[in-house]
Design a protein that fits this description.
Blueprint lengths: L2 H4 L8 H24 L6 H12 L7 H7 L7 H10 L3 E5 L7 E5 L1 H22 L4 H12 L2
Antiparallel strand pairs: 1-2
Helix pairs in contact: 2-6, 3-5, 3-6
Length: about 150
Amino acid sequence: MNVEEIIKTEKKLPIEQRTMIHYALVFNKIREEFSLALKPFEISEQQFNVLRILRGQKGKPANLSTINERMVTKMSNTTRLVDKLILKGFAERWVCPENRRKVEIMITDNGKKELEKIDLAVSRTEERLLQGFSHQELEQLNALLDKF
């Protein structure tokens, strides 16, 4: 990916500016590819993230705070995401009878089955996006990104 070609400039960009533009271009490309992979399932990247968090609870319920803390993209509308998953039958929610402010959320069997299908599509997308990298290069890239 040549940054100067993409933004259609002939001038040499300062390395810091080029790096940030390059990062933004790669980030947007990744988001586009994942959106395309998730589109057939009619699920957003954030809904997918919530389902993975719920599955990671291994049968224990989660609350909105736990979900929000573990989200890759932090957002304030976790309730809305959960509501959409409930409407699709992928999650269920109940209010604790002893403490009505405590809301617990779990992934449904239907949600687990759908997530398995989505996992395959996401895995194929990851493989396609990273096919040009060796394992060592991916380790190196991760080490560099850890510096952020």
